[in-house]
């Protein structure tokens, strides 16, 4: 029997002469509400603690730019020619060839910006890294490889990331060739001194270009072959971007045919993960020259029409 002045959890019992379970409905409801408040606090702290534990741990590869093949025409020494050993490769305007080469790639102007972040350092700007970019011409040819442009090295260049982790290039809008969605290749190196060996790359990936911009550009002179090629491919079916429809590699493109275009892409890099791509591809599935790898079949050699390459 409770004491006449007994309380429960700081509340006086309305029927001190009765047992706790006989204190009446109002008291029972108050007890239930109080218990719910306690549970909210307990589970709230638990969830917060779990969240802090998750955030406090080392950032893994989540959010890292996907590793992709460098394709058969990288020009980084991993598959024949090596433009990265040539003096003058560090440049922002990549429309013209340099060194002993001459020639300029024609096409709709495209300003490209990649913003590299360091996931191993909490996502801070990755200042000082060297970024090598390359892509095809408006005819779908790759300098240094494709028939007729083997003596050119345009549409290839390196820039060093500034304090914001950004690199910027002036180029032209690339073509869509048979079997691939329109794209731009790039490799990230720890610093400028590292670019002479492709094995030093800490990330190799590709940027996808949005369909609306592609349609506008390909309606202009010089891009005629790209119209049919684009109609035969999709982001979802692409052998590089198809795993997620290009969700993490689709560039943001603004501008117009008359004024030119600007493309930007966030490039999160995690140096704690082992790079799993780069170099010439291997294999024989569909979607590239002999698939995502191997030597191009006769009809898909560089310079052949239609050209197909990763």
UniProtKB/TrEMBL annotation:
The keyword Transport does not apply. It comes from the Bacteria. The keyword Cell cycle does not apply. InterPro entries: Intradiol_dOase_C, Intradiol_dOase_core. Residues 1-22, 63-85, 270-310 are annotated as: Disordered. Keywords: Dioxygenase, Oxidoreductase. Pfam families: Dioxygenase_C. Residues 279-293 have a biased composition (Gly residues). Residues 102-179 form the Intradiol ring-cleavage dioxygenases domain. GO terms for molecular function: dioxygenase activity. This is Intradiol ring-cleavage dioxygenase. It comes from Arthrobacter koreensis. The lineage of its organism: Bacteria, Bacillati, Actinomycetota, Actinomycetes, Micrococcales.
């Amino acid at each position: 029997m409770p004491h006449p002045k007994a309380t429960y959890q700081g509340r006086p019992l309305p029927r001190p002469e009765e047992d706790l379970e006989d204190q009446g409905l109002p008291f029972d409801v108050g007890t239930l509400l109080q218990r719910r408040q306690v549970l909210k606090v307990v589970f709230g702290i638990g969830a917060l603690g779990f969240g802090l534990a998750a955030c406090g741990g080392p950032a893994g590869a989540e959010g890292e730019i996907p590793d992709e093949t460098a394709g058969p025409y990288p020009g980084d020494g991993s598959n024949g020619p090596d433009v990265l050993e040539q003096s003058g490769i560090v440049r922002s305007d990549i429309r013209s060839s340099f060194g002993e080469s001459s020639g300029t790639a024609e096409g709709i102007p495209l300003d490209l910006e990649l913003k590299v972040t360091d996931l191993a350092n909490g996502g801070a700007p990755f200042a000082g890294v060297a970024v090598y970019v390359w892509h095809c011409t408006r005819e779908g040819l790759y300098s240094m490889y494709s028939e007729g442009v083997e003596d050119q090295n345009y549409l290839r260049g390196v820039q060093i990331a500034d304090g914001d982790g950004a690199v910027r290039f002036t180029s032209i809008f690339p073509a869509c060739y048979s079997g691939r969605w329109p794209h731009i290749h790039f490799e990230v190196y720890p610093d400028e001194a590292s670019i002479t060996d492709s094995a030093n790359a800490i990330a190799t990936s590709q940027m996808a270009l949005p369909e609306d911009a592609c349609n506008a550009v390909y309606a202009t002179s010089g891009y005629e072959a790209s119209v049919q090629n684009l109609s035969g491919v999709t982001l979802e079916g692409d052998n590089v971007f198809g795993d997620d429809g290009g969700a993490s590699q689709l560039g943001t493109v603004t501008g117009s045919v008359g004024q030119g275009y600007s493309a930007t892409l966030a490039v999160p890099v995690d140096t704690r993960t082992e790079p799993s791509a780069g170099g010439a591809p291997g294999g024989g599935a569909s979607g590239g020259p002999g698939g995502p790898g191997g030597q191009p079949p006769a009809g898909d050699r560089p310079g052949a029409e239609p050209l197909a390459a990763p």
